[in-house]
Design goal:
It is built from two helices and five strands, in the order H-E-E-E-E-E-H. By secondary structure, it is an alpha+beta fold. A hairpin with a 4-residue loop joins strand 1 and strand 2.
Length: 73
């Protein structure tokens, strides 16, 4: 089950308070400004703790940015 759209609209990065990209097919929320990735557990629980964020390397950042453009995010 994808993350509820109403919740997605409210979620922001806990570090910079900016918007996030949501990839429902990967269960991920992504902050391209800080290159931080937040996982979505079981499709509906966003893990938004800064210490749980994953740093994304340049290659993954490029992939996610291209995917967001292709998906119209």
């Amino acid at each position: 089950m994808p993350l509820d759209a109403r919740l997605r609209d409210l979620l922001v990065c806990p570090i910079d308070r900016g918007p996030l990209l949501y990839f429902d097919d990967e269960d991920k929320l992504y902050n391209p400004r800080l290159r931080k990735l937040y996982r979505v557990h079981q499709g509906d629980i966003a893990v938004m703790l800064p210490e749980e964020a994953v740093d994304v390397d340049a290659q993954e950042h490029a992939r996610l940015c291209a995917k967001s453009t292709a998906d119209g995010l």
